[in-house]
Amino acid sequence: MRSSRSADRSLSPLAGPTRGLFGALVLGAFLTLGCDASLAAPMPAAHDGEATPVSGGVLHLSSFADIRAFDPANISDGLVVELLELVFAGLVNYDDEGKVVPDLAESFRMSDDGRSYTFTLHQGIHFHSGEELTAADVKRSVERALHPDTPNPMSSFFSMIEGYKELQSKASEVLSGVRVQGKYLVSFHLTEPDATFLPLLAMHTLRPVCPNGGARYSDTWHACGAGPFMLPEKGWDRGREINLVRHPGYFRPGLPHLDGVSMTFFVNFMTEKYKLARGEIDILREFQQPDLVRFQSDPRWLPFGQYEADKQINGEMMNTEMPPFDNVELRRAVASAIDREHYRLLKATALRSATQPIPPAVPFHENDWDCQKYDVAAALDHMKKAGYPYDPATRTGGYPDPIPYTLYQQGLSSYTAQVLEQDLAKIGIRIQMRVVNYPTYLALIGRRKTTAFAPAGWNQDFPDPSDFTDTLFHSRAINDEDSSNYAFYASKTADDLMDRAKHELDPGRRATLYHDIQKQICDDAPWAFTHYYRFYDVHQPYVKNYRTHPVWTHDVKFSYLDRAGEGTRASLSRLGLAPAAILPRWP
Amino acid sequence: MVKAALRRLAYVVFVVWAAVTLSFIASNVLPSDPARMVAGPQARPEDVARIKKDLGLDRPATVRYGLFLSRLLHVSSLPDTDAAHKTCGTLGPLHVDLGKSYQQRRPVLTILGERLPRTLALAVVAVFLQVLFGVSAGAFAAKRRGSAADTATVTASLLGVSAPTFILGLFLQWLLAYRLNLLPLDGFGKTFADHATCIVLPALTLGLFGAAYYTRVVRDEMRAELLRDYVRTARAKGASELGVVRHALANVALPLVTLIALDLGGLVGGAIVTESLFRWPGLGSLSVTAILDRDGPLVQGCVIVTSAAIVVSNMVADGLYGILDPRTRRR
After folding, report:
1. A154 at B interface, C-beta within 8 A
2. Which residue of B has its CA nearest to A235?
3. CA–CA distance, B184 with B176 (Å, rounded to integer)
4. Any idea what the Cα angle at residue B152 is, between residues B149 and B156, rounded to 5°?
5. Which pTM was predicted?
6. ipTM
7. B109-328, which class in CATH?
């Protein structure tokens, strides 16, 4: 008996509550040690300010995400865009202010009727594979990207080009709307004037690919374009990293300055911070919230941090085809009851209160206009008009049933849902949260008569207001499945205005039209617009000529490294590449 | 003998088929659209529809399931360069076809072929560390029962059991890579030497976590063994303490083999958290991405490897029982 008790005791020297407490202490100690609060000092530059550009060195980036494909004809993730920008040059591109400017094209002109655009190419531009880029390559690349067998998620954006329907239906193997007018002259012909054509052309989808890309898309093609950097053999290790090297035949003399750009994928936020401290990456864009606050409050890092453009709108979507939001007054009540400041404070380092559908970085956003605003008295008035009067003093009345609210587990929505719940309680509306995973959420929100109320957001595909208004609120965007008009909102007035704005080429008249469109949408309230999201990044002081870009996120094409002791050979060696192994590929 | 082997093989096939079928049903019952996940959350309906057709998702689930099973293992005289067989792995006329990943647009077999060796390497090193640390510490504690050393070992093992791998992994990364700069923070590297250094942190994380269990098992089993008659007899005959421990350990091996087999099978399926934390490009991180992306063919491929690994490791354990303890052969 005695020996048995003794054995039990020795088997469990820490038993019951003591064991739990001990476990908690251990966990706490690990967490404390793991979450190192101090920030490493920035690594100094050799010179203050923007010095004479230095050639050489490799810029290192990282992300928690991954890229799925590396082909301008198959862009299905947000991260690859900044890498495609380095490898593929286009006829036109965006300047630092988001304005469309010529790039591979020396110049371009639009016909008087706004239906044709003619581009004159620079002569002597060479692909990474050595061949000269001609107008025929432009046409071949466009047809390759828009062919129906290409898994291009952005094909339909270019449906305004003549012959698109015939190509898609395989009635024709060529795109009649793209014509080679000479070795260096190519023209695009549209079915009708379209203000979105140039902004879309400046994106990556139709950018010229090397002749070895062929006339049709292939999953096994090795990416090759005419941009400042090229992808060497084995330069992309899927799911791990991509290493780009300088294109020695880039058509802009003396550029780029860097020998290469490297990006590592699937890196968790904590490791990214360590990598910045160890000099393994040069720019940090993804933070754990406490670290972001630390970087922003550290005077050593403050000069090297900046916000990226607000290119994202978020809000609460109300399905106009489903009760109770088929009642416009109830939608207006919700839009007025939400205090946007409550949302902003959830993540004050990244969020800004939203007042209108078009985000601040997109043309025709109006800075000093509260298209929708917080006004509880107005919200209560709308509740009364909707037939559900509510008395806040006695807490009587209001909408009788809880409204199902579908949200997903990632990101901010589980927090914003709590704010929403509290704000709506003030006007007598209760919500019932239904949490699903992200893929399920995506399927449900786009399915007709399925989701009455849900958080929704939209990121800029291309910098034109129609990317927000037409995609989210035009009746053409309604579909039984995969509808991007999540609210299933249909207004003839709004549709007409959006159609006119899309075909209007005069910026002044477009501005007026978009003001009217936003006003109509705000008033009909298919969404209650709540917040814009913006990212912040920091870079090491030795990364020069670096800036955030309104469209491409990072603009590192022409950045340079002003750090002593990092030459070309050392940089390539860090990439595990020998210069001789790369450069002979280019004649 | 042949009959027993065939029965075992049938068992393996049944378990793998059941696992794959369940995962196929689950991925088709959930209200989500793989084509939408491929096209991206903002793709237009017409583009999603085209991609859906391209991936064959416009066909009924039953048709796709039948096609999947018929392609999984088939006989063909055509080589894998033939258009209809380019996603196949071939062994003479025998073709294995897991299809093409929706997201990566590459044969699933190719992807698994890249990932499996890395996961196997991590699993083997991690289990080796578990056994090394666990058996040493367990035997040490058992030999000094009731002493301060015993208490310290039990406490340390409790530490290991209490700390989930993501906490332990973060701590080891912070200490060994960031603070002491002894190891790479994460990754896989390019050369064998790189791989050898990169594997240390994930293997150590898994090894320490698993070793905690091993310590407790070995300690308890050893304590029981050390009280048995044969140990007393051995000591009476003048056997050294090391010899006594060696004899006792041999008898502890049976439960240990079960643990090792289960761990090895589980780890081949992928140490999801640890692989993700340290960017070890194995099956664990691949499975997570595949599930989140609703990448059906890749999920099926991962399920086949995982379920096969667990069944096979259990069969190996059963075989080892017979070798370690001949009495079990008669049963």
Report:
1. yes
2. B190
3. 9
4. 140
5. 0.87
6. 0.85
7. mainly alpha
